[in-house]
Amino acid sequence: MHSTTYRLLLAIGGMGLSGCVYSFRSGALPPQVRTITIMPFTNEATLVVPTLVQTLTEAVRQKFVTQSSLILSTGKSDLTLYGRIIDFKVAPVAIQGSQQAAQNRLSITVEVRCMSEAFPELRWEQTFMNFSDFPAAQPLSQVQEALVSDISDRIAQDIVNKTLSNW
């Protein structure tokens, strides 16, 4: 076999194998893990946004529904996620020449625990933080809903990645 052809077949075979390794469809979970309960997040941040708990909890649930084979449950499950919002803050990030902020950053931090009676090796606890910048001239009230949705979506993705692949 010609060496170029051999290398090409080896590369194609390697790509096929690597596709299996990086699957997020419950790849790192034992096949016996079939259900997950995602408890409503609690809000312990100093600044309370009324819609944040629902937005974040729903984002996590939707990510699991669309990116895993786990079945959402409201009762006893193989895995149970508990989350609490510990920080919600706005801070300046880009200062202009006049010492005035050009950009502000909204950041959200959550602590999440994954519990399992049947699979204690799958238990974990981790803090997740994400943020989004917006023009300082724009009031938070005008962009808050969109920013919260975007940040919640990214945090939810991190939680799903941690749960399914244990990174």
Could you describe the 3D structure shown?
The protein has about 170 residues and is an alpha/beta fold. It has a single domain (about 25-165), classed as Lipoprotein like domain (Double Stranded RNA Binding Domain), CATH 3.30.160.150. The chain is about 35% helix and about 30% strand. The chain has three helices and six strands; from the N terminus they run H-E-E-H-E-E-E-E-H. Strands 1, 2, 3, 4, 5 and 6 form a six-stranded mixed β-sheet that branches. Helix 2 (about 50-65) runs parallel beside helix 3. The protein is elongated and about 60 Å long.
Taken in chain order, the helices and strands follow as: HEEHEEEEH
> What's the CATH class, please?
Alpha Beta
Into how many domains do the coordinates divide? 1
What value does the Rg take, in angstroms?
A: 21 Å
* Biggest sheet record: 6 strands, mixed
User: What overall geometry do the principal axes of the alpha carbons give?
Assistant: elongated
- What is the fold-level CATH name, i.e. the topology? Double Stranded RNA Binding Domain
Distance between the termini: 40 Å
Number of strands: 6
Please report the number of helical segments.
Answer: 3
CATH-defined superfamily: Lipoprotein like domain
Which range does the strand content fall in?
25-35%
Which blocks of ≥5 consecutive residues have pLDDT under 50? 1-26
Helix- and strand-based class?
alpha/beta
Which CATH architecture?
2-Layer Sandwich
